[in-house]
Write a structure and sequence with these properties.
This protein is α+β, with helices and mostly antiparallel strands. Helix content is 26%, strand content 34%. The protein contains three helices and six strands. Strands 1, 2, 3, 4, 5 and 6 form a six-stranded mixed sheet that branches. Helix 2 runs antiparallel to helix 3 (104-112). The longest helix has 13 residues, at 35-47. The protein starts with a strand and ends with a helix. 23% of the residues are buried.
Length: 113
């Protein structure tokens, strides 16, 4: 899921124990959840933001895992409260985000926004 603040995108760094790579808000769908419900839950868990993400109607695959893309716009001045899965975040331009992001599908999605 992409988080936009004006022209900036939020990228999060997974803790070193998880490889220390840069990514966006992500997570699995729990039993009984829709993709939209899972996106809203993960958004809250990983950043503290309670919001309803917008479905980008873009699906891609990481190996055998289906991923549905979402975006949420936040107001100027909003900052995330990271959970223990992440140890750093950055607000980036599109080009900066593409340079940092680990997964090619996520980099491609940045270009589509």
């Amino acid at each position: 899921m992409m988080i936009r603040r004006g022209d900036e995108l939020l990228v999060l760094r997974r803790c070193a124990a998880d490889g220390g790579y840069w990514h966006t808000v992500a997570g699995g769908v729990e039993h009984g959840e829709t993709y939209a419900q899972a996106a809203a839950r993960e958004l809250c868990e990983e950043t503290g933001l309670v919001a309803q993400p917008i479905d980008l109607e873009r699906t891609f695959w990481y190996d055998d895992v289906q991923v549905q893309a979402f975006v949420v716009d936040v107001p100027a001045g909003w900052e995330p409260v990271l959970n223990p899965e992440h140890d750093e975040y950055r607000w980036c331009t599109r080009d900066e985000a593409v340079a940092l992001l680990h997964w090619p599908e996520t980099r491609e999605l940045v270009h589509e926004l």
